[in-house]
Amino acid sequence: MLISAYIRLIRAGYVLAREGALSIPGDLPPALAPLRFGIWFGRLIERPSVRRTGHVERLNKALNRLGPTYVKFGQTLATRPDVVGVRIADDLSALQDKMEPFDPALVPAILAAALGDKAAELTELSPPVAAASIAQVHKARLRPANGLPKTVAVKVLRPGVEARFMADIESFYAAACMAEGMVPSTRRLRPTEVVETLDRSARLELDLRLEAAAISEMAENIKDDTGFVIPTVSWDHVAQNVLTTSWVDGIPIRKHAALDAAGIDRKALAAKLLQSFLRHAIRDGFFHADMHPGNLFADPKTGDVIAVDFGIMGRINRKERRFLADILYGFITRNYRLVAERHFDIGYVPKDQSVDDFTLAIRSIGEPLHGRTASDISMARVLGQLFAITDLFSMQARPELVLLQKSMVLVEGVARALDADLDIWTVAEPVVGDWLRREAGPLGRIEELRDQFKVFTEAAQRLPVIAAQAELALADYHAGKARPRDRLLRGAMLGVLGLAGLVLLALLWRLLTLAPW
Question: If DSSP codes are grouped into helix, strand and coil, which group holds residue 132?
Answer without folding.
Answer: coil
